[in-house]
Amino acid sequence: MPTAPTMSETIGLLENRVSVRKFEDRPVPGETVNAVLKAAFRAPTSSNVQAYSVIVVRDPAIRDRLAKIAGGQAHVSKAPVFLAFCADLTHVERAVAKAGQDFGGADLEMSLVASIDASLVGMAAYLAAESLGLKGVMIGGLRNNPVDVAAALGLPKRVYSVFGMCLGFPAGDPPPQKPRMDFSQMVHDDRYGAVRDERSPEQALGDYDATLAAHYRAIGKETTDNSWSHEVGGKFYPQPRPNLARQLAELGFDFA
Ligand SMILES: Cc1cc2nc3c(=O)[nH]c(=O)nc-3n(C[C@H](O)[C@H](O)[C@H](O)COP(=O)(O)O)c2cc1C
Question: Which residue among 22, 137, 211 is best mutated to probe the pocket of ligand 1, counting the most ligand atoms within 8 A of its Cβ?
């Protein structure tokens, strides 16, 4: 009996991937960025709305401004190229007007559709870039202040940057991979809860906390014994970005 295939170039890329924040001082040519983005634009898109756009940011002054908005992330300034993946409803708005209809506004569904479309293009671009030997990291820090990002990038109404991406040729060896939660806790058969793991979710969480703590200690990063629980608790409580919904509404996206 032939065995089912479990390995491919794409699976190999994903299994080995890790966020990289240090880059060689080697430019990423425009043709390379274009090839990455052209491939990424073949990502699936909800009802073919293609509600995204990408800003290729090379201007050092704009990059410094984005780095500051992202909370002082030096790699945003230093990476050879920075891409801002945007949810963009201007194409839809134009088409609706051409068809003689009234756009009205971007409700929750449209706002989600555009954000999901932009995210799928972002991940596809990331993978395409890795396939050409580039590495990088996504930058959600742009959502610290979407209004300032829109001003820095000249985004019109109905466009906001969902996240950015630093890309470049990696300097030195990539950092060790950050362990993920166990596959057996994350995959359910037919109905939620039917996981392939003897352990309770609480036991699995305890094990993951210990695994991540060991990883952080091995790379010299300070942590606590309940590493992941502590990290996630600190990240989302108190609520980060309390002005986000208001700012996105200002930019023409209603997530209410
Ligand atoms: C949408 C998104 C936003 C992110 N934002 C940032 C960021 O602002 N700064 C950063 O250094 N890493 C950022 N990351 C990278 C994550 O921290 C990283 O993927 C995660 O810690 C897992 O590590 P790994 O990618 O090396 O496996 C982001 C990742 C995603 C998917």
Answer: 137
